[in-house]
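Teaching assistant's notes for section 4

Start the section by putting this record on the projector. Ask students to predict, before seeing the second block, whether UDP-galactopyranose mutase will look compact or extended. Collect guesses on the board.
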Amino acid sequence: FEGYDLVVVGSGLFGLTIAERTAAELDKRVLVLERRDHHGGNAYSEVDPDTGIEVHRYGPHIFHTSNERIWAYVNRFTEFTGYRHKAFTLYQGQVYPLPVNLATICQFFGRYLTPDEARALIAEQAAEIGQLPPDPSHEEKGISLVGRPLYDAFFRGYTAKQWQTDPKELPGSVIARLPVRFDFNNRYFNDTYEGLPVDGYTAWLSRMAADPRIDLRLNTDFFELADAIPDGTPVVYTGPLDRYFRYSGGRLGWRTLDFEREVAPVRDYQGTTTINYAEESVPFTRNVEYRHMHPERSYRGDRTVLVREYSRSAGDQDEPYYPINTAGDRDALRTYRMLARQETAERNVLFGGRLGTYQYLDMHMAIGSALAMFENRIVPYFRDRRPLG
Ligand code: FAD
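Reveal the predicted structure now:
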């Protein structure tokens, strides 16, 4: 491991952005270590062997951002299609558009309502909660936002499946807001830019790693060779924060997903990319039909691939997907953040990405925070010899 200016642990979008910028902008040699047998982290996709359809191995990923800089940066590596994500939910044999919008409300209550009528109706239904207690439950907070009928139909069962907990027992803090739109806008994301990489995620991610000054080592766990890295070499670590410190502050809680794949002998199984299943009696949370992400491609017409998602809390061997963020997790996170600051000051290790900071990050956020780390910490370190800490 001699001769590298920087070691990056993890080849997800955070790690690749740091590696790409450091190599291209500062002309430095970067070693990227990746535990898995592929690069790209959770944005990785592959061609389904039975159908030829591009499938995202870790759940459906749609790129979206309103940030001009991030959009310009990602467009260096890929063009994007004009895909606009729309989602639906199935409840008692009816399909409704998501997020809840005027079409959902009119369909649910069985008549046309103007935006003002719909707003008044939801406000009246939400008023049953009255003054919220200081620490409201998910159920109390949810009803106060959307009223009981919509909460019971679209949020109660889905939330119970996501968290495997009765929403009465879940803290209201889990939901900052439940989006309700009083117009017919049913686009899932509101960002200026949205799309899918024209020739797939893996092509995009490979171009980010293509600089000859970047060496990517797959199937390599940082912890198995950390001692071989020369002392003082700066490290950007994007693996789990608690693992870095040997879980000394306790384990940070995550939810994981189990994916169930099925090849159906039809061209089009459900007519859209994602359908949520709102009812608790259906064990999975959503069904994803990947062919709909690329209507511009000529996929074969006799079969389609579907992936159903089941949510549960992650055990030691599971992939961490969404931070649970209980009060205990937040306490542990404070301890880890303090340890991380010390580690940066004493050993030149920076922590970043969704695992390294214990927070859910969309792809554009992971890239944006990596660009900020590059400019604020890595450039001054190499150009002005300023300490990382
Ligand atoms: P990751 O992609 O997780 O990369 C971290 C890498 O570090 C991994 O490859 C891991 O193997 C590696 N690693 C960990 N420990 C070690 C170690 N000890 N040694 C070596 N390597 C290690 N974002 C969107 O913008 N749009 C979406 O539609 C969207 N959908 C999503 C759906 C799901 C189900 C999930 C879970 C996430 C979704 N995201 C989406 C978020 C997106 O996945 C993240 O923004 C992105 O993965 C963050 O990149 P990262 O580099 O921080 O982390």
